[in-house]
Amino acid sequence: MKRWKSGFLLICVFMLVLAGCSDSNAGTETDSSGDGDKKVIKVGVLASLTGALETYGKQTVQGFELGLEYATEGTMEVNGHKIEFVVEDTETKPEVAIQKATKLLEEDEVDFLVGSSSSGDTLAVLPLAEEYEKVMLVEPAVADSITGADWNKYIFRTARNSSQDAVAGAAAIAGDGVKIATLAPDYSFGHDGVAAFKEAALELGAEIVLEEYADPAATDFTSNIQKILDADPDYLFVVWAGANSPWNQISDMKVQERGIKISTGAPDIAALHTMEQLIGMEGFSVYYHTLPDNPINDWLVEKHKEKFNGEVPDLFTPGGMTAAIAIVEALKKTEGDTDSDLIIETMEGMSFDTPKGQMTFRPEDHQAMQTLYAVRLEKVDGFDYPVPVLMRELSPDETAPPIRNNQ
After folding, report:
1. Which positions carry the signal peptide feature in this UniProt record (predicted)?
2. What is the rounded distance in angstroms from the CA atom of residue 394 to the CA atom of residue 371?
3. Which end of the chain, N or C, is more open, meaning fewer C-beta atoms within 10 Å of its C-beta?
4. What is the CATH number of the domain that holds 382?
5. What is the CA radius of gyration of the chain?
6. Residue 17: its pLDDT value, please?
7. In whole angstroms, what is the distance from residue 53 CA to residue 323 CA?
8. What is the chain's percent helix, strand, coil content, to nearest 5?
9. What is residue 241's predicted lDDT score, i.e. its pLDDT?
10. What is the pTM for the complete model shown?
């Protein structure tokens, strides 16, 4: 009887120990190898996979996937922790972006957010990053207010912002007495872009004679372009994103024949196909695959062709890659720890190499300082669209935007 009681007590003790071990691991997701101390790190990617900005969303997602591959050397692990990512379509609708972000945070329990293609979508999601205390890397949305008035400490942006575009755009055309009209879509991306351009252009002595805003879903820009013609500027500076670009109507209404020079940021390859009439235009570029000269961009171009049927990376592909690299580099420094306060401390002031050269997160507002490119659109043999040809690189110091978050 005594031996039976002793054996029973030993079994009870053993079961309690097992229960204690089980409780200590509760809430920790382990990888498929069964290593209980190795967490699966999850990233939620918000992107426009449908709607007017779907090509931008797809570029970002493809770049992010390649960025994880590059930064982890193909292992998809950091310090033994596996990295997974979940993609959600915002449909380029802020209310949908909120729903999808909430799903990623609550159901998928992601450690990071990345996105989105639209500034409107992104601005809607920023408060959720703060509420759930999760770091969000903004890519490719550019509205100044994201790292300005609407910023919170959980927000880092690998994308350039409107002011960085504006500095580059103004440097190309603004000067004493130059009259400039602007055309942009009527939402935060357009308004922030024009406001930043106007500030930079006025500092260089230019005069803004008209700010014209069009419905972002418009297909007919006749009335907008007529107002520009009536204002009779020296230059028309265009801020635009999306497939429904105004270039064909600008050509049809013979804006340049009226003596008005066009300037803009060189868009993605699909939009470049509509800009044959703008050969010779001088402006700026965020990215074109032949502009950066560094090993990471060489890797990106080669891998992208290999993985996506010979296609080259487009305007926002390197941005997706850069966001992935930034996350992995931060995790390497924290040895896989995803604590948000530690990640923020690590990423503030962090420099890291990207397809566009070295970037640095400015500590004050977490905006990535980065290279942009002064370009001229030229006809190049073998291409059926105008190609952005490098005039010179615009350094991170040259394109550094004002700090606007009032911190």
Report:
1. 1-26
2. 6
3. N
4. 3.40.50.2300
5. 25
6. 39
7. 19
8. 40, 20, 40
9. 74
10. 0.83
